[in-house]
Amino acid sequence: MTATLAVPPLATSQDSAVELVGVRKTFGRGPAAVTALDGVDLRVGAGEFVCLLGASGCGKSTLLNLVADLDQPSAGRIVRHTARPAVMFQEAALMPWLTAARNVELPLRLAGLRRSERRVVAGELLELVRLGGLGDKRPHELSGGMRQRVALARALASAGDLSGVGAGAGAGAGAAAPAPALLLMDEPFAALDAITRDVLQAELLRVWRATNTAVLFVTHDVREAVRLGQRVVLLSSRPGRVVREWDTRQAGADLVTGSGEHAAEVIEEITSRLREVISSHAAA
């Protein structure tokens, strides 16, 4: 789809956050081997928001693990032009004995920042996700949506690009210019109720715009993908391959403003192709 709103252009190959070229991932050997991904070519531009759709078991989470360097491809190559990617999952996975602020500080501590610097950065990030003043709360004292906000703040701290957070965070990050940031999100809102999920989608967009972090977001929800992503990428059934991409900037903007006719058409088109993929996966 061609965008008609005055929105930022998609990134060019000169400013990619990560590039996957001919990526294949096979688990096991011999007759029992399972190929999860085969020949995946994908690029996420610096500061770009890309949503990944596909049938269950098509390799979406495997792809995130490869990009996160938690596993290695069997073939092909992955080129990262970012700091180490940060990952968010369905569960917030916070340390229950630490406060919200200390959870956010954890990756900063591992990176070697002094305590005073960690406090400044964590405070700025908690403000960014609208949890200012709640840094002393432990996870059990927070709602599910709040815990995911803390997880988002921690992921941003781990990703390392704090240039959009404010002068305090920038000072705390050190004198050297940080590498571009990449955030990998594996259905982070799937376990939340519809109202909380809607609120956090809006919050994620606000934070993304504030930090200019590249995002690769896995979801099964077509509407969520269109609302959030500048681009939606559809994977085939196993083995996963990129079968279609959509520029969804216009449709996403329409969903935000409420002028939904164009957005409805795009959602229906993507849903139809996803159904085809799911049907082929079920028949396999």
TrEMBL record:
Annotated ABC transporter domain ranges read 18-262
| Keywords tagged on the record | ATP-binding, Nucleotide-binding, Transport
Read off the InterPro entries from this record: AAA+_ATPase, ABC_transporter-like_ATP-bd, ABC_transporter-like_CS, ABC_transporter_ATP-bind, P-loop_NTPase
Q: Pfam families, per this entry? A: ABC_tran (PF00005)
Listed GO MF terms: ATP binding; ATP hydrolysis activity
Say yes or no: keyword tRNA-binding present.
no
This protein is called NitT/TauT family transport system ATP-binding protein
